[in-house]
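Students often ask why we bother encoding 3D structure as a string. The short answer is that it lets us treat folding as translation between two languages. Here is a chain of 504 residues written in the first language.
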Amino acid sequence: MIFLGLDAGSTGIKCVAFSETGSQLSAAYSEYPTSAGAGDMNADTIFGAAKDVIARCVSGKGVKRSEVAAIAVTSFGEACVPVDRDGNCLCDMIMYTDKRGVSENGRLIEKLGREYISSVTCANPAPMYSLPKIMWMSENIAAVHERTFKFLQAADFICYRLSGEFTTTHTQACRTAAFDVERLQWSAELLEAAGICLEQMPEPVPNGTVIGFLRGELARELGLPENIKIVAGSQDQIAAATGAGVLSAGQAVDGTGSVECITPVFDRIIKANGFTSNNYVCVPHSVDGLYATYAFNFSGGVLLKWFRDTFAQSMKADAAAHGVSVYRMLDELCPASPSDILVVPHFLGAGGTPDIIPNAKGSIIGMTMETGIPDIYRAVMEGLTYEMAYNLEKLAQQGISVSQLMATGGGASSAVWLGIKADIFGSLCGITSITPLLTGEAGAAGCAMMAGCALGSFNSLREAAESFVSYGQPVCPDFKYKEVYLEKYERYKAVRNCTLGLFC
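And here it is in the second language, the structure alphabet:
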């Protein structure tokens, strides 16, 4: 059997074909056309791209179309599109970054209270979630109010177009701020307060559920069998954690792309005020009985890209001439010891956790006339790592400890950055090792693993991980500079919290 993992991101979508033994057979990626509205995305465009990558993926040399058994889907959360009874979009999706929904979120808090909403949803109520966006659409777009049959997120919409079934996964539902995490059902109280009918929400199903079969007309269009099962995977971070083999409490995956996100796994529902007030959420993992949260920083790998383009322009030609990346050259020049410079990485604001302050600014402090580009480069990586250590400290205060960290994304390819992370996290947070993931496309792999379990190829996700997941050499902390990092971290927190609202 062959399993297709379909991973829809906010800028593009990929499809990866995996064999039953976990081998990657083929892959395709498509970037979406630029949206006319920065806060909007067209769901039909996303599904068009989905069909394109499926078609190209199954055309790969290693793929026998007759052996494709399932397509499993994951996507980003929050963004929501209203559809009519025939699944036609009534307007574009409003993305989580869009400011619409602020006043609606305020009204929900006034009606029900912040503490009550958090106790049900295990999330601090915020305008980024689907429910305030749904309220805005229902109140401001006539067609939405009158004709909406279901409100769907991106993965839900793709699954509907593939299968004809209106469903959502438990982790996707958690991103609406209308889902009761403990009862695993829609909150009638929250929906009523928002003026939304319960019947307008899709059926919530466990992560990795077979929801139907590929529609006949699509099967013919794509040249695929009609008996292919469609699997509702999970929200993208949970899919990535699954594909990274993070399947036990105490483990976490550190995904460093444009945004850096650490996803720890634990074994109980957490509703404590200190948890949600720091903007952490609690969502069901793909493994029964386990839960996860997201600690993230908007300025992840994108800050290193900014550094490259701003400070290392002169290296680009040299790097191209030698056939290496600029980052590899910077790694080779990077000082071996901790920097005297402090970088607060809020160059895109303080977004995510534990603070949401969009107007916060980044800073580089402590430079002298002797400061060179390699010094700033190391300081940037240290600053990004201190910010995530700050998140891990906050999580530890709520009883969530992480001992093993798996690394994926572009940041995992830098041995220097992994070493910095191992030393800082080991010194400050008790993490014993950081292990880079060799398996590419963790989100798509996680979907394929869920599909394999749903179809009976594996008895559990842990068994699937034995075939699908491979790791590089673990990087262990070097405690040579432990006292230095402890002192610098305290300085970092002082500077961070002092400057957080300085420019707001």
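Translate back mentally: Residues 251 and 404 are 5 Å apart (CA to CA). Keep this in mind for the problem set.
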